[in-house]
Design a protein that fits this description.
The protein has 569 residues and is mostly helical. Helices cover 64% and strands 4% of the residues. The protein is built from 23 helices and 5 strands. It has helices at residues 13-29, 33-63, 68-96, 110-122, 128-147, 163-166, 171-186, 189-209, 215-222, 230-259, 283-297, 299-310, 347-369, 385-398, 404-407, 411-441, 447-461, 471-474, 483-487, 493-509, 513-526, 532-538, 549-562, and strands at residues 149-152, 155-158, 314-315, 327-331, 336-340. The strands form 2 sheets. It has a 3-stranded mixed beta sheet, with helices on both faces. The protein has a two-stranded antiparallel ribbon with strand order 1-2. Strand 4 (327-331) and strand 5 form a beta hairpin. It is globular and about 75 Å long. It starts with 12 loop residues before the first helix and ends in a 7-residue tail after the last helix.
């Protein structure tokens, strides 16, 4: 079914509540595994419809934040989401006390029970007010950047449309374009400080109402982190500081020399003196090239990609009032994923399409083609986030040697850029995580103290960044544009974890691509049913918390990059 044909109907909360409560009573009275599962399946149908309606509205609102109907529906979900979450509380209690867990193990994975146990600890009707206000603030933040226009050379540009200027080979254009972008964002500094201050205090209040020391503890349960904790994350950050930060600093100096600059400044966003690699072709041509690429790797995967295209389940064009960024959303009732992205004419276009298709393929396989009888539920439709990102970043890494048709003469440039970026991202990802830990462990920081904290940590993890005479960025404001800090606290470290596993997948693929690809696909089938620590063992991947795998991966990347002659690039 085409996306535009998918029916959206706002649920009637009172009817849903009555229906679910009646089913909950039946569930409590179930006398055997078969009857218990039958009732639970009916409950899941209701919950899946709610998830699907919310997902459709979210996608359509992302495509046009000014659409009146979708705005009204988004407001409905922002307001009613806490109430729908409240409806889950009695269900979770029944399920956690279920006497038939062992008998139902082939239908309901253990990870589901672990997940709802965590979720039952992080939501209660006592924080409904805080969750409601948090939803509204997140929407306000997202709308600022969806509607933000940058005045440059007498014209107004959306943020995505500024990318070609920001990545220009002309340094004066890079500088002026980057300054224009920062100026546009700086106009909202007070508002963004205020929004974040409110979010921090709301989240801190929620955590303490639920008995947590602070929001950090609560966030780890929200993120469903199993078999590792904040000490493991701190250990990972120290490994990144030891191995990835020196690599990043070294590569920045190589870039300065390559570009022939006395100093490398924050606006020197290009990798090569002839410019960054650019994908060759229109949006339609790039999509067709992606289809041909997947045909070369796997006929089955290419068929799925083509089905998504034919059903308009991929949106890529930068449209007026369209949100920036990219994501994949799985629509339970229609048993399909949807890819949302905004092309901007840079390597971002190929990267985001490949990244989100990794999510789409994994979610589709796990929920539709898994060789087992597991029930698909809102809690298991996606893996935990660090697991999910292995398959998105892993797809980027596995297709790295299939980029010739996208980049033609820029293929070597792209290979260098993508591989280097996979490591240089890690310090920034840890910076984002460490910053949030400092913020939520000290929720009474003033906005200025938070900005100072960001800049202090920025100098620790990314010492190569030189803001020159830009007082705005030097004051610690770059993080305003990092949406995860506002919308999905403590999510960003999941990318760091996933990048390390994805780099190991890349390393393995260099010696045996077909076997690595097969393992990648097979692991995706299982991903929704096992926690990260267990899953990487199944995939013969290293534990980044307890091993020095990052050390060896950085060396592997350095060796690979050294084979590329960048003299004339």
């Amino acid at each position: 079914m085409k996306f535009e044909e998918m029916l959206y109907k706002r649920p009637n909360y009172e009817e849903v509540k009555t229906q679910l409560n009646a089913l909950y009573n039946q569930l409590k009275e179930a006398s055997n595994p078969s009857s218990f599962f039958e009732v639970f399946n009916s409950i899941n149908d209701v919950r899946s419809t709610i998830s699907t309606m919310k997902g459709i509205n979210s996608i359509r609102n992302s495509i046009d934040v000014n659409n009146t109907f979708e705005l009204q529906e988004k407001a409905y979900w922002d307001e009613m989401d806490p109430s729908y979450q409240e409806l889950e509380i009695p269900l979770f209690k029944i399920l956690l006390a279920c006497p038939f867990k062992k008998e139902l193990a082939d239908r309901i994975p253990e990870l589901f029970f672990t997940t709802i146990e965590s979720q039952s600890k992080v939501f209660s009707e006592v924080i409904t007010k805080e969750v409601l206000e948090e939803n509204k603030l997140i929407t306000e933040y997202e709308n600022i950047f969806a509607k933000l226009m940058v005045q440059y050379n007498g014209q107004d540009y959306r943020i995505a449309a500024m990318a070609p200027f920001i990545n220009s080979v002309d340094r004066s254009i890079r500088k002026s374009a980057t300054e224009a972008l920062n100026k546009a964002i700086s106009k909202y500094q007070e508002l963004l400080d205020t929004i974040y201050d409110k979010l921090v205090h709301l989240r801190d209040t929620s955590a303490k109402k639920l008995g947590f020391k602070n929001f950090v503890e609560m966030a780890y349960l929200i993120r469903n982190r199993i078999k590792y904790d904040s000490r493991d994350i701190a250990n990972l950050r120290s490994k990144v500081l030891e191995y990835a930060t020196p690599f990043t600093t070294k590569q920045a100096e190589s870039r300065r020399i390559r570009l022939g600059l006395d100093e490398l400044y924050y606006y020197d966003n290009i990798m090569f003196k002839t410019g960054n690699p650019k994908p060759k072709g229109t949006e339609t041509e790039l999509v067709n090239k992606a289809l041909q690429m997947y045909k070369g790797i796997s006929k089955e995967v290419s068929v799925f990609f083509n089905e998504m295209l034919n059903n308009n389940l991929i949106t890529l064009t930068d449209l007026p009032n369209k949100k920036a960024g990219g994501y994949c959303c799985y629509l339970l009732n229609y048993k399909c994923p949807f890819i949302f992205a905004t092309f901007n004419g840079t390597t971002h276009d190929v990267n985001v399409l490949t990244h989100e298709f990794g999510h789409a393929l994994q979610s589709y396989n796990a929920n539709n083609k898994y060789k087992g009888n597991y029930l698909v539920m809102p809690e298991t439709v996606y893996p935990s986030m660090e697991v999910a990102e292995i398959f998105s970043v892993g797809m980027e890494m596995l297709t790295l040697n299939y980029m010739d048709s996208f980049y033609l003469e820029d293929t070597a440039k792209n290979h260098y850029l993508q591989l280097e970026s996979a490591v240089t991202f890690l310090p920034y990802g840890c910076l984002v995580d460490h910053f949030q830990q400092e913020v939520y462990e000290n929720p009474n920081m003033t906005p200025k103290m938070r900005r100072d904290t960001w800049r202090k940590l920025e100098k620790l993890y990314c010492p190569h960044i030189n803001y020159a005479d830009n007082a705005y960025l030097e004051s610690g404001t770059y993080w305003f544009r990092q949406s995860h800090i506002f919308t999905s606290p403590f999510y960003y470290i999941d990318y760091v974890i996933a990048y390390i596993s994805a780099l190991e997948i890349w390393k393995n693929s260099k010696t045996d691509f077909q076997n690595t690809w097969t393992n990648y696909i097979e692991l995706g089938y299982k991903a929704n049913r096992y926690p990260y620590i267990d899953l990487i063992k199944m995939g013969n991947l290293s534990n980044p918390f307890t091993t020095d795998i990052l050390k060896y991966l950085v060396k592997e990347v350095e060796t690979d990059l050294s084979k590329i002659d960048t003299t004339d690039l």
